[in-house]
Amino acid sequence: MSERFPLASLAVPGTGNPVGGTAAITLSERRPGSVVEIALWSEKSNIAGILGVSALPEPSRVVAGPGIVCLSTAPGRITVIAQQSGLAGRLETGMILDEGTVVDHTHGRAGVRISGEPAATLMQKGVSFDISRFAPMSATNAGIHHMGATIIRLDDDRFDLFAMTSLANSLWDWATDAAVEYGWQVGAPVA
């Protein structure tokens, strides 16, 4: 198992379990360059400008910029998933200590993208809330199957799930088991 990408040996592009020759679900390992949590205790922070987004997300919402997704998972808490590595260091340099703090979770999170027309129905199998009320560009921390995870709904048919790397295999097992009835394939890793 790769320390950086714990699903590399499982999420092999081109593999899968099609049903009747088709795969309605595509599963891809998420391989961002950075996963960072920011705790803000000052509303005057310039963190949105440093991140390159127009504004920070409202609670349970997502904002995106070039190569970056920012989500609000609690009051004053922003999780940032970026294609570029080294984001924590850049944020620490640009943030005034009185504004907040930054924690780098890059090596501590494993991610899976679930996409395809039945993705929302598949997700409903693992969560305890009505997924139809979970609008595109929304995010939450919730239980999925038996794991705590960050769930991001990017659009109607695409979700990103992030869990602690120690749960990477369990997250993958849940996703592949839940996708069996639709047929699934592994897509290329997503930054």
Set down the secondary structure blueprint.
Blueprint (H helix, E strand, L loop, with lengths): L15 E2 L7 E6 L3 E7 L6 H5 L10 E4 L2 E7 L2 E6 L4 H8 L5 E5 L4 E7 L3 H6 L13 E7 L2 E9 L2 E7 L3 H12 L4 E3 L5
Q: Briefly, what is this?
A:
The protein has 191 residues and is α+β, with helices and mostly antiparallel strands.
Question: What attributes characterize this protein structure?
Answer:
five-stranded antiparallel beta sheet, seven-stranded mixed beta sheet, alpha+beta, 191 residues, single chain
Order of helices and strands: EEEHEEEHEEHEEEHE
Average predicted confidence as pLDDT: 93
Cα radius of gyration in angstroms:
17 Å
Separation, N- and C-terminal Cα atoms: 18 Å
The coarse silhouette is globular
**Strand order across the biggest sheet?**
1-12-2-8-11-10-9
Account of the 3D structure:
With 191 residues, the protein is α+β, with helices and mostly antiparallel strands. 16% of the residues lie in helices and 37% in strands. It contains 4 helices and 12 strands, in the order E-E-E-H-E-E-E-H-E-E-H-E-E-E-H-E. It has helices spanning 47-51, 87-94, 119-124, 168-179, and strands spanning 16-17, 25-30, 34-40, 62-65, 68-74, 77-82, 100-104, 109-115, 138-144, 147-155, 158-164, 184-186. The protein has a 7-stranded mixed sheet. A 5-stranded antiparallel sheet has the order 4-5-6-3-7, covered by helices on one side. The radius of gyration is 17 Å and the shape is globular. The two termini are 18 Å apart.
